[in-house]
Specification:
The chain has 317 residues and is of the alpha/beta class. The chain has 13 helices and 8 strands. The longest helix has 20 residues.
Length: 317
């Protein structure tokens, strides 16, 4: 009986939120993203897209065996992804909080490459809020420019939307001047309607220039064109309602240049050219970078290099 009452309360809360933000036409979303995969980009436009995608990569290592040396190597690749001077630096390196100080030492302070740190008990978020906030403050103190937090998915699914927003707001305060990226963990939200609703909950309490992000990369389903589209449209609708520009980061599962270009097509057609910059769009990936570099080299020289021609990056997340 208690369970039934809880489910009823949860359903009422969700229905109220869906009434506020609108629900998703699932068939329409799938039809729209299917068209992105049929677009053909050639020559100069393709090269521009590949280089732009490089500039949007958050080069990532999130493993228990990470070492200061591995992080230093990652930072070197972030600063100079290729010998070709036309290839830009990546947007950021993304590491665990304990590795932030090593990334800062490797990058120095006179660089446009930012340091992002996952935090708030990534990937589960299952520690007391005071512990999560302490982790955020420590990462910022050690030199993190950006914090990637995970929302409390259990609270969301229980209909405790005020709690979800209060926790995001508390993390936003703990970040100080650092950029915040709010990870929804879309596979655990289960439906497009939930993804859209969670996007709005986050956007209402973060700042212009902060991000909403699809995934931790630690679950079976991560960034797809479908859930990316749902979040892009939420950003568009929120911007039209409020004038506040929120940024977007799909993460996990984007491994090829072809995929990256499809995601950029989605951005251009949904949000326009203003979002085709690493201040408003990022890729949470690392294995993606080598394929982007390989495709750039192919466009530049007409020949593919072997995959081992490029230094290995950390595993994608």
């Amino acid at each position: 009986m208690v369970r039934n009452l809880m489910n009823a309360g949860q359903s009422v809360s969700l229905r109220r939120l869906f009434d506020e933000v609108g629900q998703v036409d699932c068939v329409g979303i799938e039809e729209r993203v299917a068209k992105y995969t049929t677009r053909s980009i050639k020559k100069a436009s393709k090269l521009w897209g590949l280089r732009t995608a490089v500039s949007m990569v958050d080069l990532t290592t999130l493993e228990g065996k990470d070492t200061p040396g591995k992080v230093a190597s990652l930072c070197a690749k972030a600063l100079q992804p290729a010998d070709d001077p036309a290839v830009p630096q990546v947007a950021a390196v993304c590491v665990y909080p304990a590795m932030v100080k090593h990334a800062r030492r490797a990058l120095g302070t006179d660089t446009a490459v930012r340091i992002a740190s996952v935090a708030t008990a990534f990937p589960s978020g299952q520690t007391p809020l005071r512990t999560r906030l302490a982790e955020v403050r420590a990462a910022v103190a050690d030199g993190a420019d950006e914090i990637d937090m995970v929302i409390n998915r259990g609270a969301f699914l229980a209909g405790e939307f005020g709690r979800v927003q209060d926790e995001i707001a508390a993390v936003r305060t703990a970040c100080g001047g650092a950029t915040l990226k709010v990870i929804l963990e879309v596979s655990e939200l289960e439906t497009y309607d939930n993804i859209r609703a969670a996007s709005f909950l986050a956007m209402r309490v973060i700042r212009p220039g902060d991000f909403i992000k699809t995934s931790t990369g630690k679950t079976t389903l991560n960034a797809t064109l479908g859930n990316n589209q749902v979040m892009l449209e939420a950003i568009r609708d929120f911007y039209l309602d409020t004038g506040t520009a929120i940024s977007m980061k799909p993460a996990g599962g984007i491994r090829t240049a072809k995929q990256a270009l499809q995601f950029l097509i989605a951005v251009k057609e949904t949000l326009g050219d203003a979002w085709l910059t690493n201040e408003r769009y990022r890729f949470g990936a690392s294995s993606l970078l080598n394929d982007l570099l390989r495709q750039i080299e192919k466009e530049r020289t007409g020949a593919y290099q072997a995959p081992y021609y490029f230094s290995e990056a950390a595993e994608s997340y």
